[in-house]
Specification:
This protein folds into 2 domains: 7-131, no CATH class; 145-335, 3-Layer(aba) Sandwich (Rossmann fold), CATH 3.40.50. The chain has 8 helices and 19 strands. It has helices at residues 158-171, 188-196, 217-232, 250-257, 259-262, 275-289, 304-314, 325-335; strands at 20-21, 23-25, 31-38, 47-49, 55-57, 63-68, 71-73, 77-80, 84-86, 90-93, 99-106, 114-123, 126-127, 145-151, 176-180, 200-202, 238-246, 267-271, 295-297. The chain has a 6-stranded parallel beta sheet with strand order 16-15-17-14-18-19, with helices on both faces. Strands 3-6-11-10-12 form a 5-stranded mixed beta barrel. The chain has a two-stranded antiparallel ribbon with strand order 2-9. Helix 1 (158-171) packs parallel to helix 2 (188-196), helix 1 crosses helix 8 and helix 6 packs parallel to helix 7 (304-314). The protein is globular, with a radius of gyration of 20 Å. The N and C termini lie far apart (54 Å).
Amino acid sequence: MKFKVPAVVKNVEIPEKIELKEEADCKKGDVVLVKVVKQPEDAFLKYVRTPENEKVFLKKGYVVLSALSDRYAARLLNGAVPKHLKKGDIIDLLQQGGESGIIKSTRSGFVKTKLEFLGFVLRNMKKMNIMDFALPIKEVKNKMNLIIVVGVNMEAGKTTTTAELCGGLMKKGQKVCAGKLTGIGSVYDIGEYVKKGASKVYGILDAGYPSSAGLSMKELDEAFMRIFSNLAAEKPDFVILEIADGILQRETAMLLESEVVKKYKPKYILSCYDALGAYGGKLVMKERFGITPVLITGMGTITDLGRKEVEGITKIKALDPVLQSDGMAEFILNKL
């Protein structure tokens, strides 16, 4: 049987011969085979990305390897792992990484890609799950600088900041590793880190989860350690980690409160969309989490006027993550 292999199963050892279980209870990360049965021309998700970050545009009839997932995206949709599936059930594509589940709600105008469930993929007569291929937690023996990039909301500029800081530090002779701790599994964001010079990158998929939505504090701490400890094992000068969504989002807030994360004394960069967001973000980080960011970047800092407004209201240095990436790296080196 021919099927497409998207990024969500990038770590899975795919059997040469696919055996399926046609009905069972579901668990986050279960590897499943699905068929595209409805792909309207105006579908929001028109393609899936391969493990190599290439686009595969979907057509009705395509068979795709997938993994069941939850998804939280405040500006887009809310999706969940179904409780039980049997062959022929209809589910939804949740993200370009190839994750699937049941969409509970969407923003106005969102057109769904519909998938027919064909079965759970088996190995040694047991359901396969991407957690079976998660990174092990390693002992962190070496010292390095840990930078965590957070934002006031989605699309504030976190990924751009993380990638550009990787590039700026690399130009100054620093070895940098990077990762994305939360969100739904994607190779796109961590691929941007590689383009800019990160020597090693990992994301939530490497921690064994298709997404961080709904994880417990214990699971989030373990995901952090799977990603961070393996990046630290590369003996970098800097580890830079991005946390998805905004600082009030459930899993982001939990990581900001995590004693496991605090143990490694991270410095925080805040990405904002405007001066008001920067001001509110600073207040929330200080009052709720006891954190003062060392730098503010993002969409709200890409003009001289924007930076002046942000610095004026927050009293924290603001830099354009793209045009001032070298200055951002120099500032971080001097600050630490």
